[in-house]
Amino acid sequence: RLDRARRDRRIADLADRLALNDFLDDLAEGYSHGMKQRVVIAGALLHEPRILVVDDPMVGLDPRSVRVVKDILRELSRAGASVFMSTHTLAVAEEMAARIGIIHHGDLAALGTLDDLRRAAGGETGLEDSFLRITSDEEEAS
Fold this sequence. Notes:
This protein has seven helices and four strands. By secondary structure, the protein is an alpha+beta fold. A two-stranded parallel sheet has the order 1-2. A two-stranded antiparallel sheet has the order 3-4. Helix 3 links the parallel strand 1 (51-55) and strand 2 (82-86). It is elongated. It starts with a helix and ends with a helix.
């Protein structure tokens, strides 16, 4: 639990980094999807979590906000927190993740580093190729 002064500094830092300062007095109902996404991310980060679970956090964000969120998640991870991120954007997973799990038909089809997944897929070069190979169904292959 954060003391009041530390919490206030944390709010100011997140509002600054996520470009929320000009909108703090506005009603959230008027926010764009991207603005709402930044507010949700700020709320999730406010208490400096040791474990963070996020679902497609980059959806709806402009490129600058995507970079800021990536930087914040990396900082959180380097500080010892665990970040579990679900994403359909394989480039984000490839860039950000130390370990990647691939879910196929509700089952964990593969888990490991990018190199592990490449090996499991027969040496494919990128996560997208590895994902497609690992999740290909036999009936799709014929």
